[in-house]
What we know:
Blueprint: H1 2-17, H2 27-39, H3 44-62, H4 71-95, H5 101-116, H6 142-167, H7 172-187, E1 201-208, H8 222-241, E2 250-252, H9 266-279, E3 283-289, E4 296-305, E5 309-315, H10 329-332, E6 346-347, E7 356-358, E8 361-367, H11 374-382, E9 387-392, H12 402-417, E10 421-425, E11 430-433, E12 439-443, E13 449-456, H13 463-503
Parallel strand pairs: 1-2, 2-3, 4-6, 8-9, 9-10
Antiparallel strand pairs: 1-13, 3-4, 4-5, 7-8, 10-11, 11-12
Helix pairs in contact: 1-2, 1-3, 2-6, 3-4, 4-5, 4-13, 5-6, 5-13, 6-7, 6-12, 6-13, 8-9
Amino acid sequence: MPLRLLLTLLSGIGLGLAFEPLGFVILMPVAIAVLLWCVRGRSIRGGAIMGACFGIGNMAALLFWLRVIGTDAWLALSLFEALYFALAGAGLAAVSRLRLWPLWSACVWVGVETFRGDWPMSGLTWGRLAFASIDTPFERWLPWVGANGVSLLIVLTSGCVLWGLLELPQRRMLAAATLALTAGTVILPWLIPVHAQSDGKRTVAVVQGNVPGSGEDLIAYHREVTASHMSATRELAAEVAAGREPEPDFVLWPENSTAVDPFRDAAVHESLVATSAAIGVPILVGAIVDPADDTKVLNQGIVYDPETGAGDRYTKRHPVPFGEYIPYRDFFGKFSFGRLEQIPRDMLSGTRREPLRIADTEIADVICFDISYDDTIIDQVTRGGRLLVVQTSNAMFIHTGQIEQQFAISRVRALETGRTVAVAAVNGRSGVIGPDGDVISAIEPRTRNTLVQKVELSSEITLAMRIGPWVGRLSVLLGLAACAWAILSYRLQSQRWEKQGEES
């Protein structure tokens, strides 16, 4: 038992290292296989303990960047998230007694992953297996089965390989066939070219204005940040007028490109209108907006048109608990936990499901951590979004691996949706990603720069956008059913053994 606990802890760390910025993706299937082996045949309680050890190692490595908020916040969130892995470990131990246990194990994993990404307080979707699948054979499944389906395939593949290795000495032919079929499942998608049906093109300009000083403290320099984005856009306008740059159809600014409400600050509003007029095309501005209730705040993407001014808006749908709002403020607000004292107002959640309309084009907009939630993407893409844009700040995390992890998720979303993805960050990482997940152009972090890129539009809805959510929901049901059947079967078998013992 102690050896297995150590193995689960190390394999959990290995899974965390499979994600960016290190990206040791080969560790991902190995880590899952080790966990499945460790919990195989164990009691539910033993599986839960091993799952918790795995989760602690995984989350501590994955969320190491959270230390910039506070070591206490990093440890607290890692320990809390480990509870979900304890639940997964218990379920994996239970279904390991069933036939076809690799399949049921995959359902349990994705079921818990779905639950973890939904509850409580809209959950935490960071660390889904699919988000580490970019630049691996599994990425080619993203347009077909979505992020949930890829997570399921990763666990199923790991389980099948483990089963094949365990059964190889006794059932060589069957085990060899299973291993060959598993390898074929991984290789097959590479024989099918990734493509998105293009039905138009637009030219987008991405502006990265940078943050003065160390690059971490956007709030302290928020006026300078806004001014930098304005001047960079005006410089681009001069380049366009001189014929040195193509004219964009619209300009994309990042989240928090103005931390002042442009509807309450007349000077900022007028400057935004003037900047849009100077470039002659709409600007999608990331702004902090004050609603009627001054105790709350909104994080919005606002379309500034050169003729009509401020127009269409998208409000961030998934504010970060304890990062952008404090749940149960009356209780948690009393504690100086991490940087809670720096959150004087709670951010409200948006409800918009339709894409924005910019330059006669339907554009799906997500803000920062929204990119990791399926509903924000699926709702807008299936309602006509032909291009996906990401507005993000990340300045607080600029010296950590968080920016690379988030950019990798954006690449996953490009493949999953079959859409070009344009990312604008305050100081990194900004770029344009093609529908095949490859980076077309990018701006180096911690620099002030602008890129102008012609991008493909698409109205085609990938299969992933249709079935992806149902894979997660079905996994929850199948995982619960498999666990219940495993527990019931075990108890019935135990009762038979007891009865036979009494009769003998």
